[in-house]
Amino acid sequence: MQLSESLTRAYNAQIKLEFESSFVYLQMGGDFELRSLPGFSHWMRLQSSEEYTHAMKFINFVLERGGRLELLALDKPAPTPATVVEAFEAALRHEQRVTKAIHDLYALALEERDYASLPLLQWFVNEQTEEEATVSTILDRLRMVGEDRTGILFMDRELGQRAGARSAAAAAEDGEAGAG
Question: Are 33 and 41 in contact (CB under 8 A)?
């Protein structure tokens, strides 16, 4: 069953949002590197890669369903906020925006009775629950630390140990989304 025009447009908009997510995290990662916070940079860069993989998962689905892929222009990421806490607050707001978009896409698929979309979208609903929980936990811990430099350096070291998923290209080729 080929995707409807309205679902194709919605998926293309979601692809844009996933690539923008990748750029947001890549921007933050670069800024953290310049602030001598390599662990935060590492975490953000892995998150960027994961978001890229999510975009590729949507692209593969659209193409498998005979939809027309239309890559839309990306918005420039906002500058990284001044503090680590503010950066993770921005990351959480961004994840909440992505969650809403996925929920809206799920609702549209239900409305159009495009049941073939539901397993993919349910995977993303679950993934977004995990994404928001992860960022919220980091944010809660950063708020406990406040501006204490020792605490920030400790968290920097901890986040620097985040294990990366397989390469985004390999996961996308397999139609997988990578671990979060």
Answer: yes
Please provide the distance, in angstroms rounded to a whole number, between the alpha carbons at the two ends of the chain.
31
What residues have CB less than 8 Å from 139, skipping those under 6 apart? 85, 88, 89, 91, 92
Tell me which DSSP letter residue 54 carries. H
Which amino acid would we find at residue 44?
M
Print the SS3 string covering 68-104.
CCCCCCCCCCCCCCCCHHHHHHHHHHHHHHHHHHHHH
Q: What is the DSSP letter of 164?
A: P
Residue pLDDT, tens place only, 121-149: 999 999 999 999 999 999 999 999 998 99
- For the whole model, what pTM was predicted? 0.89
